[in-house]
Design brief:
Layout: E1 4-8, H1 11-14, E2 71-77, E3 83-87, E4 96-100, E5 104-109, E6 112-113, E7 119-120, E8 134-139, H2 143-146, E9 148-154, E10 160-167, E11 174-185, E12 197-199, E13 205-209, E14 231-235, E15 255-258, E16 263-268, E17 275-279, E18 285-291, E19 306-307, E20 310-311, E21 325-328, E22 335-340, E23 352-356, E24 361-368, E25 371-379, E26 384-389, E27 395-399, E28 403-409
Length: about 400
């Protein structure tokens, strides 16, 4: 198979941070293109640093990419309705929970799709637009004890809801009547909802929200600290009602990081605690952002001042965080963020997988020789809407056409 290699030497910025769904609609379809003038930038207040997970030994990281011709993405289940997220509960059951965009969560157990949904809230979910629906799922770190899990969905009218539900006495069935809404965020347009929810190694819940939609961030949301749009949020769901703001959040609000266009999938490396974000581009560049564990909050990823590493609106500013990787629309149209591999195949250890919705390309990304190396490993030809990992660290992706596929050796 022909491979496409891209060497990106951005580590001095992205690593050190010293300079200081349907998946998203292809950016060329954005309905509004009027010129955007960035609002004033608020100065970040340095918070107390969040410690990285304790490791007795350094996690293994590959120094190069394996020969991808020896591996394949094997279909494990099909018959799904627009799958957009894959999660496990961390409860030792080995089950995978798959979000269907219309408002259902399905269970895959022993490579079989259970007929009865784990949760069905389709009557509460607005999936009328391409990027609306039930979009994200995260299980509480103490799920085995409390049965709590959290979702991101678009309610009637399109506004974002972050809500908690609870499982019943039957581990394969949740109770839709246990909904407790944590956040309601007004969405001015029907696209760029983001949608990801994920617990960090610090036990806090992180939320990825897009800039509110249209094209070019016409309302200036991503660079404004007066809105939750275009941000990574960080909240404490174990305190307060319905949550508390961690004391080391940089702005005294839910905001942890800003300057994002449409974070479509983000994940924490289970071995290091590093945060990886796939941020969908406007019309030319897609990007992967890297947020090392232990880094203070308050960083600015640059949208719409930049698209990838490239000037977008003509303004310049210091203290922007450059992407770890980017690719042009010659290779796709909408990035799907993924996961660092931590499964049983040693040759893939520490490699971050990400993909493109339109082309089905799957890249690997590693740090190499003081920079980043990104390489197209697979050309799947399907619409990759999400990646996921199971409890063993093996990696999967969701084909938005209705199937789940797993990386295996031929």
């Amino acid at each position: 198979m022909k491979r496409l290699a891209i060497l990106l030497t951005l580590a001095t910025v992205a690593c050190g941070l010293t300079n200081t769904t349907t998946p998203p609609t292809p950016p060329t379809t954005d309905p509004i293109t009027e010129e955007f003038v960035a609002p004033p930038i608020n100065t970040a207040i340095p918070p107390t640093e969040t410690p990285a997970p304790t490791e007795t030994t350094a996690p293994v990281v590959a120094s190069s990419f394996p020969n991808a011709d020896n591996y394949q993405w094997m279909e494990v289940v099909s018959g799904l309705d627009r799958p957009v997220d894959i999660q496990h509960a961390g409860d030792g059951s080995g089950r995978l929970f798959i979000i269907e965009q219309a408002g259902r969560i399905r269970i895959m157990e022993n490579d079989q799709l259970l007929e009865t949904p784990f949760l069905d809230i389709s009557e509460r979910v607005d999936d009328g637009a391409n990027e609306q629906g039930l979009l994200g799922l995260a299980f509480h770190p103490n799920y085995e004890q409390n049965g709590y899990f959290y979702v991101n969905y678009a309610r009637d009218g399109g506004d974002t809801v972050i809500a908690r539900f609870q499982v019943t006495g039957d581990p394969n069935v949740a109770d839709p009547n246990t909904e407790k809404q944590l956040l309601n965020v007004e969405q001015p347009f029907p696209n760029h909802n983001g949608g990801v929810v994920a617990f960090g190694p610090d036990g806090y819940l992180y939320l990825g929200l897009g800039d509110g939609g249209a094209g070019g961030d016409p309302l200036g949301n991503a660079q404004s600290l007066d809105t939750l749009l275009g941000k990574i949020l960080r909240i404490d769901v174990d305190k307060g009602d319905p949550y508390a703001i961690p004391s080391d959040n940089p702005f005294g609000s839910e905001i942890w990081a800003y300057g994002l266009r449409n974070p479509w999938r983000m994940s924490f490396d289970r071995a290091t605690g590093d945060l990886w974000i796939g941020d969908v581009g406007q019309g030319t560049w897609e990007e992967i952002d890297f947020y090392p564990a232990g880094t203070s909050g308050g960083v600015n990823f640059g949208w719409p001042l930049l698209e990838g590493t490239h000037s977008y609106n003509g303004n310049t500013q210091t203290e922007l965080i450059m992407p770890a990787a980017e690719y042009s629309h010659d290779q796709g149209c909408s990035v799907t963020g993924g996961y660092v591999y931590r499964g049983e195949m040693p040759e893939w250890q520490g490699i971050y997988f990400y993909g493109d919705y339109c082309t089905g390309f799957v890249w690997g990304l590693i740090q190499s020789n003081g920079g980043w190396q990104s390489e197209v490993l697979f050309e799947t030809g399907v619409r990759i809407s999400s990646f996921g990992v199971d409890e063993s660290g093996e990696i999967y992706f969701a084909n938005h056409g209705g199937a789940i596929q797993k990386l295996v050796q031929k």
